[in-house]
Design brief:
Elements: H1 2-19, H2 28-42, E1 67-71, E2 74-78, E3 85-86, E4 98-104, E5 109-116, H3 125-130, E6 143-147, E7 150-157, E8 166-174, E9 177-185, H4 188-200, E10 203-204
Antiparallel strand pairs: 1-2, 2-10, 3-4, 4-5, 5-9, 6-7, 7-8, 8-9
Length: 206
Amino acid sequence: MKNKITILALIFLLFVLSACRPKPSTSNENLIAIAVGKTLAAQPGPTIQPTYTPYPTLTSHAPTLEGLFCEYQFCIGHPVEIALFDAREAENPSLYSEGSLVAYSPDTFTLLVWQLNHGSDDPQFMLDLVMKDGLGSRLGNLDVNLVGDLTFFYVPTSTASAVLPVGGAAAWICGDRAFGWMAYAPNKEIAYSLFEEAASKFRCNQ
């Protein structure tokens, strides 16, 4: 029994002595290594960049004709990919009585102008107005289209742009206003489809 107590006492003494042993000092190199490791661990990971999704241009196919512009008490169709906006200066914006809108992209250009009609039954003067300042000239025969209760005059036009080699212009009267429209496109099918979309969705307060 006495031997057993002695052994337990020795074990306890060894435990106490080992606990009181001085701990090895950490060198400056170790401290620096620890600090660097903590700094690197705290750095944010690389941000995953969003991938670019290429969208087809209008040169190879007709534009998606589902857009609708409604302002100045009329509505008109346009390609959904591009938007119509006021082409006039901010200090002289478009009004109900007169104005102009444009829409463009690398593959299309559209211009719409309007003014009070003053009683004329023939809107062809708007063709000259929309093509002024060298924006094209008439080519081919004038095409008359009855769309709903409105009569639209359409004619192919020349263009000064090699990128958009085909153009078309249209004119019509709705209520007390006359409208002129023009578009440039890569080919005549797209130019005419732009006109059809504009005319088929056109409405005004008469």
